Amino acid sequence: xxxxMAIMASLTTLASCEKNDEFLTLELLxxxxxxxxxxxxxxxxxxxxxxxxDEFTYGYDVYFTNSNKIEFNRSGEWTDIDCRxxxxxxxxxxxxxxxxxxxxxxxxxxxxxxxxxxYYEVDxxxxxxxxxxxxxxxxxxxxxxxxxxxxx
Length: 152
Fold this sequence. Notes:
Mean pLDDT: 86
Number of domains: 2
């Protein structure tokens, strides 16, 4: 049964990749991305690394066997960390954001964090989305999943 699941996962992976995306090895990632993975996710097994081409730029997507995913920009800085069945490691969450979550949502965990432009978006395991400035100041709570990065 696990062999069948592996085949299905491989087919799904191939079908979900854009035409121009390319599979890489970890060593071909920018040094900053490699260091991030080693420091914060070193105990996890990588299932695939993809150079993800968008309209005018590219980034990197790193998928782990436990369904976690990290997206990096072309410089190797993380832009999105999605931990579906685990929590985002505290070591990678900016201190101000982590302090706010621990103080105001002590029974919840961060399962996704994104950074875009001037804001961080933190998704908790209870469905609450929190928005912070890049300097770590709390901005607002979003309960309905609107695109937070477009609103000021």
